[in-house]
């Protein structure tokens, strides 16, 4: 059995706030409605904060999918915060608020938890278990590299460096792309099937999310050069008990990749090429593997550096570490610190910090 998960975050770092209605129209509605129409089961992970932007008819459609057993709602942090960068009280506040909103709006209590940016540390499973979560999603490639725990001694090298260079437009782009496809295929060969048990402060089951599988599926669905649905299906056909797609819903119908547009219809072409059952994520079988997962994310080098090393990010992280209460949620939003954040997204966090500081000090 294979599964699909669609991750939705309307605080997306690179998407202007004015575009939110268009994102809902172009990505959320067509994807969710088409999957339900075709009776294809899937996991849906929309941040609790993002739910407040969804129109009533879309909420009703999602609830219809839940009631029919086609949609498994997943928990996450309320404002897509990077949990390993927060004080533990704020980690739990983010987890609790997201669950409360989903119980209130969607009338469901999630069992699985999607880590924003798959950012993980070994304390998070304990807090999730304390809050009635049964399993989480974690980066599969980080699992492969977790026999080395100190990246200062042995840095993690990306599995497909040429493809990353091509995505960035570096060097001879087409040559890097060709070399990157070879690297990507080799990376897919490293994928193992099924859930694992993570050794952590409290053990928890985890479904690996494989960036190599996601990337291949997106390249094939977008019909990038030398890639198409049949080729991707051939690459992954031997892999069962995996997430076939586990990334942003915004890539389907709204955001292009290097000028190539992906739609839910393109994704369904790959599914049609593959034999085998599609099911809800929670039904993925256990591999009987048990392992320790290092503090990591799904960044190419599996680190948290994208959200920490930039001066603006460092400043935000320092200032939010002293915050609590409602405004802290907006300040903690990861997309103020994202891969390429828009100024308005970053300013939202700084404004929340300033307002909190003024109110805490009785100033106007």
TrEMBL record:
Recorded family membership: Belongs to the glycosyl hydrolase 57 family.
Keyword presence, Hydrolase: yes
Name this protein carries in UniProt: Hydrolase
Ranges in coiled-coil conformation: none
Keywords: Carbohydrate metabolism, Hydrolase
Taxonomic lineage from the root: Archaea, Methanobacteriati, Methanobacteriota, Thermococci, Thermococcales
Organism: Pyrococcus furiosus (strain ATCC 43587 / DSM 3638 / JCM 8422 / Vc1)
Domain Glycoside hydrolase family 57 N-terminal: 17-290
GO biological process terms on file: alpha-glucan biosynthetic process
């Amino acid at each position: 059995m294979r599964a699909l998960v669609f991750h939705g975050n309307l605080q997306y770092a690179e998407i202007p706030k004015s575009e939110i209605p268009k994102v809902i129209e172009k990505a959320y509605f067509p994807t969710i409605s088409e999957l339900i129409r075709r009776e294809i089961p899937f996991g849906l992970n929309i941040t609790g904060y993002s739910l407040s932007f969804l129109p009533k008819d879309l909420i009703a459609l999602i609830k219809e999918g839940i009631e029919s057993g086609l949609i498994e709602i997943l928990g996450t942090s309320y404002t897509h915060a990077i949990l390993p960068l927060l004080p533990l009280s704020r980690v739990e506040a983010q987890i609790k608020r997201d669950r409360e909103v989903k119980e209130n709006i969607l009338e469901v209590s999630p069992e699985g938890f999607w880590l924003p940016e798959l950012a993980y540390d070994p304390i998070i499973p304990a807090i999730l278990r304390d809050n009635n979560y049964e399993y989480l999603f974690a980066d599969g490639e980080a699992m492969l590299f977790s026999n080395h725990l100190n990246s200062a001694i042995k840095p993690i090298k990306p599995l497909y460096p040429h493809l990353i260079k091509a995505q960035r437009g570096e060097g001879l782009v087409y040559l890097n792309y060709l070399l990157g496809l070879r690297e990507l295929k080799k990376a897919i060969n490293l994928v193992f099937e099924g859930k694992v048990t993570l050794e952590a402060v409290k053990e928890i089951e985890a479904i690996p999310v494989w960036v190599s599988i996601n990337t291949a599926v997106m390249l094939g669905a977008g019909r990038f050069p030398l890639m198409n649905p049949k080729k991707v299906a051939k690459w992954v056909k031997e892999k069962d008990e995996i997430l076939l797609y586990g990334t942003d819903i915004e890539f389907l119908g709204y955001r292009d990749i290097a000028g190539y547009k992906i739609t839910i219809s393109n994704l369904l072409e790959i599914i049609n090429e593959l034999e085998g059952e599609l099911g809800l994520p929670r039904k993925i079988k256990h591999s009987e593997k048990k392992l320790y997962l290092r503090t990591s994310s799904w960044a190419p080098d599996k680190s948290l550096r994208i959200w920490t090393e930039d001066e603006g990010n460092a400043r935000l992280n320092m200032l939010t570490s002293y915050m609590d209460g409602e405004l802290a949620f907006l300040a903690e939003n990861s997309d103020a610190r994202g891969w390429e954040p828009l100024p308005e997204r970053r300013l939202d966090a700084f404004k929340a910090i300033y307002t909190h500081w003024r109110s805490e000090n009785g100033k106007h």
